[in-house]
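G.,

No rush on this.
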Amino acid sequence: MKIGPVTIPGRTFLAPLAGITNLPFRQLVKECGCAVVCTEMVSAKGLFYNSEKTGTLLRSNQAEKPLSVQIFGTEPDIMARAAATIEAMGVADILDINFGCSVKKIVKQGAGAALMQDMANSRAILQAVRKATTLAFTIKIRSGWDRSGAQAIHLAQIAQQEGVDAVTLHPRTASQGFTGAADWDLIRQLKEKISIPVIGNGDIQSVADAVDMMDQTGCDAVMIGRAAMTNPFILHQVESFLDHGSFQAVGITDIFRKMEQLICLYAAHFGEEPACRMLRGRLPWFVKGMPGCATFRRDLSQIPATAAALALIQDYEYRLTRYV
């Protein structure tokens, strides 16, 4: 599959997740076999005003290529300048605009899913950004503000007219947030309405879900978010099944080695103390549902240093494998 000038080495995308898809986590998922990873949402205005925090979100390295950088905002000129800045930095292979975030503080700004109620401004943003950059250009949208999906199809058609190279659809309404079920049939309808690639997103918790979505909708690729937080191997497993009809199950040892790797990546990227604070909430993702995970989570909440986290992991792995 190609998105604009970029050849995509597979059919899996890591979804942009605020506070989650930082450089260390993207590196981990990329090494596990994901085709394309995406940054957290980046504020176009923050980039315009040279915010230090925004700059941190754009830190990257060659190992995670191809990289998709997602921006959000409401003003066409600032969005265009942000796109040009990102291209000049050389960090992104794909530029993505968020039209789907339903978090109140984003919607109140008129950004994210709010733009799906303002097609004139949405078109102006798409026009301005397309003129400002030669990067592969994608958008991520929701169903809209009602269950019909009419806004999603309308915006996707506008996007195609304005030179957007691919569309990702999460078929939940803005008011749903992450509740209820994603209406995969809207992905099928969208695929029939536009000729550029369509990436399906929503309710993919397993390899079977990803394959079912592709079979039911005809989408060109799948985007996985929350499931990758507990199993970073899932994207490679999907790729393996699509290519070979089978995939390798993940063992306890595989999971624990990735936990150790994430500790090292976090410490190198954020520094020892900030890494420990963040890892207290992130490492438990990997052991969700395992025997004794509640105790492990409680012990992690006290870790003073990465060495202590590594020791806890080794002890927990020993206790688990001893009884397998």
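When you get to it, here's the other one too:
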Amino acid sequence: MNALAVRCRAYQTIARAIRFIKQHGPCQPSLQEVAAHVGMSHFHLQRLFSVWAGISPKRFLQYLTTEHARSLLRGDYDVLSAAHAAGLSGPGRLHDLMIACDAATPGEVRSLGEGLLITYGFGPTPFGRVIAGTTARGLCHLQFVSWRDNTDPANAGHSADSAADDDAIRRLHGDWQHARLVRDDAALATSIERAFSLVGREQPLHLLLHGTNFQLKVWQALLDIAPGEVVSYGELATRIDHPRAQRAVGSALARNRIAVLIPCHRVLRENGDIGSYRWGGDRKQALLAVEAARRLGQSDG
């Protein structure tokens, strides 16, 4: 098993630890308590966190607190660097990439992708398994695969992985109902690796976005939020010149089909609470914690 697959599997343990910490936040659980909950020694958990996140559990847990989120929101994020404003990468990015976006044509939207060939595939990432889809014009789909409990009677006769894969394919097909879908995991491996890479590339990663004009405006604005930074729903609405459209902004975030690259995980409630995330609050906290740690350049705690 390669290093990426190991980190993908490790995320399941990380997510369980995050849920435990959230449930017992006021008590500030110790490393030993968290380790006992996930069924391993605190020495093993220490090593797992260090390999997965690049920081110690103590430092990682600090980044999960609401107070840390509030401190980010209190920061001055009104003026962004020229590089970030241009959609380019900056120091400490989770993925050090240039991103070029192209909107689906009105005809493609109306026809639900008729005549469009989408090659899709599954692959591991440090934050869990994903499904990705690409066209000749760019990546059109990148979503985390939701794990399903194979003890659920509805999943009888299927493994948890196959049931989750079936759900993921149905969601892709729902977005592009008349497109031709061809599975090729190997063909998507490079795109998935680039989406979560720490190494920049000379060529930008192209995205094909499918949404309304308002949604496209929100998604474009998200590209100006640097890793390690966050904004509130209200501030994001102001940035796109619709200060009273917070609810509509939230709806646009919920319709985002490109996880991580279109970073809707960097939007929090006004009080610093994590808020909703279509791929799970645990994953949102993990993404934010890792980005915050890398932005500050801290490798242990």
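Residues 85 and 146 are 32 Å apart (CA to CA). Residues 76-96, 148-158 have pLDDT under 50 and may be disordered.

Enjoy the weekend,
O.
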